[in-house]
Specification:
The protein has twelve helices and five strands. With 278 residues, the chain is an alpha+beta fold.
Length: 278
């Protein structure tokens, strides 16, 4: 089934029921539309405003699975609504043999509540599915990265985002850990073409990734303390805790610092200084 008219109506209805506060968008004055503006949905989903306009006018291109997943996250769709979105677009809902990149609204609400701690949601294929403003202050502007490149594998070996090292400033342990998780994910989802394609691309183009992939690392223990070198603030070492979302094979990563420490003071400074540029 591919019903462009029903898809357009559903997208408009889902957009108009969301308030800016629900998705962390400043409301601003003189809003002439209920709910979110089209440009706000476009920004949240990582697509162009024209793309959203054409979809809502039933004259858009046929959306891909990844675009539908991004729209479902942006519009905070419940699982049944996400299934309906895919059905209207004529795209098969990812089954148990594919990495799930749709996100439960309850998990997004939890992320919204974490105003004081950098946090992000990572999918089984290492995609960065959602993040809060303080994580963007720590990393740099995540939204500026093309949606298909918001992936820890890509960012670790080919991206320009400010990623972490271990406490001593060594990135090799985190590189091995990222590759090990990707290998484990491909073992769980051998038919996920997007993850396989990303691995194949990195293997061809980045020798360090190919070296680690061929070494077949197995992750035994995560790096629990990570260091970031933030311009204007300096090195900051944060505790890294991982909260599993087992139903969707996703993980919520949260960074924090012990009260009274120098790193806690730097994190406070990041809230003030870093968020001004996000």
């Amino acid at each position: 089934m591919n019903d462009a008219g029903e898809l357009a109506a559903a997208l408009r209805q889902w957009r108009e029921r969301l308030s800016p506060a629900e998705v962390g968008v400043p409301a601003g004055p003189r809003r002439r539309t209920p709910g979110l503006r089209r440009e706000e949905v476009a920004q949240l989903a990582g697509v162009s405003v024209d793309y959203v306009v054409r979809l809502e006018q039933a004259r858009g291109p046929h959306p891909s699975e990844s675009v539908l997943g991004a729209l479902a996250r942006a519009l905070r769709l419940a699982p049944a609504e996400t299934t309906h979105l895919f059905t209207l677009a004529g795209v098969a809902v990812p089954g148990p043999d594919r990495v799930r990149d749709t996100v439960r609204p309850s998990v997004l609400r939890l992320l919204d509540r974490m105003h004081d701690l950098p946090a992000m949601l990572i999918g089984a294929g290492e995609d960065v599915l959602a993040w809060n403003a303080l994580l963007a202050a720590l990393w740099g502007d995540v939204s500026a990265v093309p949606r298909e490149r918001r992936n820890l594998l890509w960012l670790q070996f080919a991206g320009h985002i400010r990623l972490a090292t271990d406490e001593q400033g060594d990135a090799s342990r985190l590189e091995r850990s990222t590759v090990a998780r990707a290998r484990a994910a491909l073992a769980r989802y051998p038919h996920d073409h997007r993850l396989r394609g990303l691995v194949d691309e990195l293997y061809r183009t980045h020798p360090r990734f190919a070296e680690l992939w061929d070494a077949r690392p197995v992750e035994h223990a995560r790096v629990d303390r990570k260091r970031y070198d933030v311009p204007g603030i300096g090195p900051i070492v944060l505790d890294c805790d991982v909260l599993e979302v087992p139903q969707d094979d996703q993980r919520l990563i949260v960074y924090s610092a012990a009260p009274g420490t120098e790193d806690a003071e730097k994190l406070d400074l990041l809230r003030v200084v870093g968020l001004q540029s996000v």
